[in-house]
Every structure is written in structure tokens, then in C-alpha cells.
Amino acid sequence: MILAGVDLAWQSEQNPSAIAYGNLAGRVLSVSRIDPAVYGIDSVLDILNTISRLQGVAIDAPLIINNASGMRICEK
Predict the structure, then answer these.
(1) Are 60 and 12 in contact (CB under 8 A)?
(2) Can you tell me the distance from the alpha carbon of 43 to that of 30, in angstroms, rounded to the nearest whole number?
(3) What is the pLDDT of residue 75?
(4) In the chain, where does DSSP find H-type helix?
(5) What is the pLDDT of residues 8-57, one digit of tens each?
(6) What are the residue boundaries of the structural domains of the chain, listed by start?
(7) d(CA 72, CA 52)
(8) Strand 2-7's sheet: what is its strand order?
């Protein structure tokens, strides 16, 4: 089974997103390609559309959360 993982950047036109994909066999995912600097959602979609036999996509995307106390330490 061919799977992809997408790590979307905040403001993805200006900041790089990343895509990794590979083959899942049993409980082992063998990554066959990583695209570490993809700019813009259209470019992300273009890459995903070229992956032959892609069967699943996991997405990590930024959310807008208005923290009452400001930015968390891990976000700095």
C-alpha cells in the first residue's frame, strides 16, 4: 500500500511544506521519497497527483488557536 505524509507549513506560499511517501508492508513503512521544500498548496497537490497507486494521505497542518497567554514555548 502506498502512503504519503504531508507536513503543511504555516503560510505555505512563503514557507516550505514537506511530503514523504513510501510503501506500507505489514507494519513497516519504507519511505521511498522525501520532498522537503514544497511551496504552495498547488505544488503539494501536484506532487500527490503524480504518486502512482497512492492509497492514503496523512496531513499535519497548522491551526489558528488564539492562546490566552500568548505563544507557547515550543512554538518559538
Answers:
(1) no
(2) 23
(3) 67
(4) 41-50
(5) 998 888 999 999 999 999 999 999 999 999 999 999 999 999 999 999 99
(6) 2-75
(7) 39
(8) 28-38, 17-25, 2-7, 54-60
